[in-house]
Amino acid sequence: MANNQGESGLTSKDYYFDSYAHFGIHEEMLKDEVRTLSYRASIYNNKHLFQDKIVLDVGCGTGILSMFAAKSGAKHVYGIDMSNIIIQARKIVDDNGLTDKITLIQGKMEDVKLPVDKVDIIISEWMGYFLLYESMLDTVLVARDKYLAPGGMIFPDKATMYIAAIEDGDYKEEKIDYWDNVYGFDYSSIKSLAIKEPLVDTVDARAVVTTPCAFREIDILTVQKSDLTFTVPFKITAARDDYVHAFISWFDIGFTHCHKPVHFSTGPHAKYTHWKQTVFYTPEAITVKNGETIEGVLSCSPNGINPRDLDIVIDYSFNGNHGSIKEHCEFKM
Ligand SMILES: C[S@@+](CC[C@H](N)C(=O)[O-])C[C@H]1O[C@@H](n2cnc3c(N)ncnc32)[C@H](O)[C@@H]1O
């Protein structure tokens, strides 16, 4: 959710917690009803799970998830946030009469010492663009390994990442090919930068040309930090004759401890969320016929200099009626 680049060339590392200090970013998250109502349903509709439990809210922001848990019968909720938004969260919790149920602690989750040894449930909204941008899942894993009691639960507990390919000729021309000729000047040096930056944008479901491929499933209860650096194969099949200009990725989230599991999707076929989809333009268009396949390998790793950023590599090959393509594409987000 945090922006990746501040002014003056400062990196997201410097700005990360500042970016969460203003209420504006929280407004966008709170108003994302797919997001917030899924969390609320998973907590309110499962009072039997929250009743008398000790709950830890990792990255509590304005305190919304802490308040859901308190209202759902939790014995006590600890909300941790490094950002100054926690000053507002304290007021909000107080204004809603929940100070005896919720303790808010300002600090980095990695450094905070909770007043309890173990918690029964961890709740957290940690997902970034392309799921893993911001690397906040690392923080949840630290909290899990330090504080979650044996048999404890994490909300949400499942995430699945998908890839598909889209027709996007007009927008690619506007965003990428634009740099070939700017008022008669050759700006193609910027084109080579622009194509390396995945675009976070809303993709029309009608633009999707292929089947989706679930390339990564993450179980939050068991995943290790090292699993978040990965290289995985994918295979997608054209569902019509068309041109492919980009790959897109999105993720689905599951709260499977619930009496009736709660899920939401950030895909192009689902209702809008502030995560939108992540678009990776290919250097050349691929002419696909219905039934033809694109096979590839996707690698994802935290950037060596700023681990909140991601290095993503997509290698793919296509052998179709209208030609063969083999590409190696490097992206940074
Ligand atoms: C995506 S927001 C979610 C806020 C709130 N839970 C909600 O659902 O509206 C993530 C929050 O986690 C906080 N955060 C991220 N990493 C953290 C860390 N390592 N320690 C403490 N807080 C962190 C950020 O400051 C931010 O307020």
TrEMBL record:
InterPro entries: Arg_MeTrfase, Methyltransf_25, PRMT_dom, SAM-dependent_MTases_sf. The keyword Metal-binding does not apply. It is an enzyme of class 2 (transferase). GO terms for molecular function: histone methyltransferase activity; protein-arginine omega-N asymmetric methyltransferase activity. Its EC number is 2.1.1.319. It comes from the Eukaryota. It catalyses: L-arginyl-[protein] + S-adenosyl-L-methionine = N(omega)-methyl-L-arginyl-[protein] + S-adenosyl-L-homocysteine + H(+). Residues 157-320 form the Protein arginine N-methyltransferase domain. Keywords: Methyltransferase, S-adenosyl-L-methionine, Transferase. SUPFAM superfamilies: S-adenosyl-L-methionine-dependent methyltransferases. The keyword 4Fe-4S does not apply. Residues 55-152 form the Methyltransferase domain. One of its GO terms (biological process) is methylation. GO terms for cellular component: nucleus. PANTHER family: PROTEIN ARGININE N-METHYLTRANSFERASE (PTHR11006), PROTEIN ARGININE N-METHYLTRANSFERASE 3 (PTHR11006:SF53). This is type I protein arginine methyltransferase. It comes from Phycomyces blakesleeanus (strain ATCC 8743b / DSM 1359 / FGSC 10004 / NBRC 33097 / NRRL 1555).
